[in-house]
Amino acid sequence: MDLTIKNKKMPYNYHTSLPAYQENKQGKDYCRMQVFIAIRKLQPCTDKQISEYLNWPINRTVPRRNELVAKTMVVLAKRDRDPETGRLVSYWQVKSVTHQPVLF
User: Fold this and answer.
1) Is the peptide bond preceding residue 11 cis, with omega within 30 degrees of 0?
2) Alpha-carbon span 20 to 42, nearest angstrom
3) Which tens digit of pLDDT belongs to each residue from 51-101?
4) CB neighbours of 9 closer than 8 A, spacing ≥ 6?
5) Which of 18, 59, 66, 70 is 20 to 30 A from 77, alpha carbon to alpha carbon?
């Protein structure tokens, strides 16, 4: 039995591979938008509350929330004890817009 790997160049199919790559990025945008909507509706809220509201695992919601924080769309509202667990948790809210941007 020959276990050597031969250097074969795999053909790249632009008709299927490129749309699949772009679809993955659209999926992240969709998830980020859903997390933003959940925070806006529940604010102030914890990651656990967001996860329960969306019925998603926590490891799917926290990265999207972190991306929104990095874009300064979501800010830390307070740090307080969770009534259920007694642990110190972060509460998040949508950043309020206090001015109208000048377009011209």
Assistant:
1) no
2) 33
3) 999 999 999 999 999 999 999 999 999 999 998 889 999 999 999 876 555
4) none
5) 59
Write out pLDDT tens, residues 6-62: 555 656 666 666 666 666 555 778 899 999 999 999 989 999 999 999 999 999 999
**Assigned token pair, 54:** 């969306």
Amino acid at 62: V
Amino acid at 32: R
In the block, which residue shows the tokens 């945008």?
29
pTM comes to 0.68
| φ/ψ (deg, to 5) at 96 | -80, 140
Region for 53 from its dihedrals, namely left if φ exceeds 0, alpha if ψ lies in -120 to 50, beta otherwise: alpha
